[in-house]
Amino acid sequence: MEICTTSLILILCFLQSAQAILDPIDFLALQSIKRALHDVPGSNFFSSWDFTDDPCNFAGVYCASDKVIALNLGEPRAGSPGLTGKIDNSVGKLSSLVDFTVTPGRIYGPLPQSLSNLKNLKFLGISRNFISGEIPAGLGQLRNIRTIDLSYNQLAGSIPPSIGTLPKLNNLILRHNRLTGSVPSFASAQNLNRLDLKHNSLSGSLAPNSLPPSLQYLSLSWNQFTGPLDRVLYRLNRLNYLDLSLNRFTGSIPPQLFSFPLINLQLERNQLCGPVKPFNEVTIQTVDLSYNKLSGEISPLLASVQNLYLNNNAFTGEVPGSFVERLLAASIQILYLQHNYLTGIVINPTAEIPLSSSLCLQYNCMIPPVQMTCPSKAGYQKIRPARECNQPLN
């Protein structure tokens, strides 16, 4: 009986050790990945990658049974030196991979086309490296993917339309690359929460139904987009962050936009025109509408904004009294109204603006009645020339 028990234990131990042996395909794939990458000086990430040992004990390698399910290349600590080299095509052979990340470093070359083979992949994060070439269209085959972060690289070409059809995609972050062309439709990406395409060379206009109402974070700034916004934005009533600055958007600002649950609204440096007329008191913390062609009187409903930038537009009339009240109560931290056509503000000349607040009225059709704290780029002329104030605005 004792012999049988001992034999059973030995068999169980053998089976457990057999199960711990990594799948040969994954083993060879890790070897190829290692050969194509190197630690930069100061990094010791690959010091544990000794293939005479179990690869599931390697730094950045996580296994379930005999398969690699997560591969995180590079030291996880912030500011680590990172890796250099290229991402080998054999990464596509890790068929059970769910998470693939590369820490910031000096990895160059294109993204492997074989990434499209990773049908179980949920997270792809390769940011702050020197990845070049185009985004593989095959990423549109990753039907389980939740997050794609390829930001701060040197990717060029257009965004593959297939990415816009990914049913489970939550986050698409492609900021700071060299992407061109138009934005594909994301209408069928009904789980998309974050779309960040900032600082590329994308162009064209946005189709009315091209963005899903599930969006909560949208950044398209520093591109070359054109066309009106009203038909695009009215459906996106879940947005809490919107940055469309430094583009060429035209037309008016839809009033309902100010009723969205936004914390930050940045529309500066476009070609937006017409009056700004919110429906209700605006509770957005920061609103930047500067450097546009907006006109009409300033709505008192904007007085509840903590940081308000309306400078370099064509606003006329007097500054509403509600702004003065909130400014003196230190409820407004920044109120930039410079470079408009404003004609007055009712405020006691002896009033002291709180140190925590900044008011700039420079270069309007009035003499500023109080001491101002203006940015240096506002210039040195305090009053707009009378000839400009007497001309009708176009």
From TrEMBL:
GO terms for cellular component: membrane. It is found in: Membrane; Secreted, Cell wall. InterPro entries: Leu-rich_rpt (IPR001611), LRR_dom_sf (IPR032675), LRR_N_plant-typ (IPR013210), RLP29 (IPR053213). It comes from Cicer arietinum (Chickpea). Its main location: membrane. Residues 1-20 form the signal peptide. This is Receptor-like protein 31. SUPFAM superfamilies: L domain-like (SSF52058). Keywords: Cell wall, Disulfide bond, Leucine-rich repeat, Membrane, Plant defense, Repeat, Secreted, Signal. It is a peripheral membrane protein. Belongs to the polygalacturonase-inhibiting protein family. The keyword Metal-binding does not apply. Residues 26-63 form the Leucine-rich repeat-containing N-terminal plant-type domain. The gene is LOC101492957. One of its GO terms (biological process) is defense response.
